[in-house]
């Protein structure tokens, strides 16, 4: 038993007496901003200051007159479809027609609160227009 205590004491003594790592804190920099060794070129003026007699330029990116879209394949068309499922309560439909230049129609969706959302829409070439109502 005493031999184990002596061995443990010697081990602890060796660990404590062993030199720790050699840590030297880094040197503080003499200057945070050093001038580059090579010469620095002066900045170049890339633009001219505006003069008092500035001419107002006319826009160059004007949109040309809007032309009607070409007659596409599959035009004119007319379709409608709908689903009414009694088990789930789902009910929705879609009706649409187009002559190639004007598209119009409506679709209906049964909302969770029991109302039906009706979206009536048309596009005559000036953009999509929609009116949303509830029944």
Automatic annotation (TrEMBL):
**Record keyword Transmembrane helix present:** no
Q: Molecular function (GO) terms listed? A: structural constituent of cuticle
Q: Which InterPro entries match?
A: Insect_cuticle (IPR000618), Insect_Cuticle_Struc_Prot (IPR051217)
| GO cellular component terms, A-Z | extracellular matrix; extracellular space
Q: Does the keyword Repeat apply?
A: no
Q: What is this protein called?
A: Pro-resilin-like 97
Originating species: Homarus americanus
The signal peptide here is: 1-17
Q: Per UniProt, which keywords does this protein have?
A: Cuticle, Signal
**What sections of the protein cross the membrane?**
none
Q: Name one Pfam family in it.
A: Chitin_bind_4
